[in-house]
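Students often ask why we bother encoding 3D structure as a string. The short answer is that it lets us treat folding as translation between two languages. Here is a chain of 434 residues written in the first language.
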Amino acid sequence: MLGLLHQRGWSLSLGEEADVVLINTCGFIREAKEESIGAILRAASEKAEGKYKYLVVAGCLPQRYPKELYQELPEVDLFLGTNEVAETAERLEELIQGDLKKRQIIRGSAYLYDHETPRILSSEPGSAYVKIAEGCSNCCTYCVIPQIRGKLRSRSIPSVIAEAQGAVAQGVKEINLIAQDITAFGHEIPHGPDLSALLKDLVRVEGIRWIRLLYAHPAHITPELISLIQREEKICKYLDLPIQHIDTPILKAMNRRISGRALRDLLFWIRREIPDIALRTSLMVGFPGESEAAFQRLLEFVEEFEFDHLGVFTYSPEEGTKAARMKRRVPAKTQAKRYHQIMSLQKKISRKKLKKQLGSRVEVLIERPGKGPGVLWEGRTRKQAPEIDGLTFLTRGKGAPGEIVEATITKSATYDLYGEIRRGAQKRMASPKK
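And here it is in the second language, the structure alphabet:
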């Protein structure tokens, strides 16, 4: 949206008065919806004070709740759904010129951006997200993504490669591949490409240093994919693999298409094939029917397997999903207790695993100048994904945002690392051998 608006002559105003305030919302789970509504109400208050002329709400909330938002938020001048991205600039211009009915709701057909879509990189220097597909056809019983985003729609490999090349031209060194399920890439196309085929072409793009895989589905992991991660230097030894649970009856009720035993075998096999891989997962506690015994199996598995990074969601009944109609609801108090039990355990696991990295030499992508005392730079290693994992704080050495430097780890905390840039490493890392 930023790229399209900029192309049509709009400029971004940060913390200043503006003609339009545009809020892009999430409608996936209760907490995200509450955060989005809070942002809308704050903007509405600022609009009433004269800071903005128009308030526009875009994204998943208006796509999912068009009538409800129209009735409950009279302060909003225009609602744009998830499929109206390509028309954002045109709709805003029509709004301020008076060509649109006030408070109109617009929801277009299925949308999928490509390499020709103008883009402004809003991530930290040196890093970019590249979305390789939109929508999802997995139909997990707790999830509204297919209703909001539609069925799986994959981009072509040449389009993804062209976007990656464009990002490299802007100084990007790390490409983070994302989708609702990256491992489903190409599945809707008969005899079409898959994620492995995309990666084989992507590693050949000059200038890319790291390729990170986020949001993979365990039921779609292939031996070829794991082999690629193992042997290709550019592909980070990192995999975001949300498993949700380990109890087979719960997985079946979630429609995850994999059993607890198969999950265990898959995860331990990945660790055997790539011993130094960093595995991130997401879990859900409090799903309807989750007994104390089922939760204990999950807790014991977390303790046994020791994920490098782990996040937990408490179950949220979402309108229109099969799970919302299920009985045997788990009380909110019990959900919260289970959430804290797993996070408390993961805190100990993370602290122990990071401590093992003391003295190691690692590559660090510098993101920004340091904020804390004695910290010169903040960055991430190959085993730390942007925004969701911990950081590496550099306390000594020369560098700059967007550069990859070599550092020695000198200290570890619960989720973060501390290190020093090795003398002369910046120059060597900036000009790798081809």
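Translate back mentally: The mean pLDDT is 91. Keep this in mind for the problem set.
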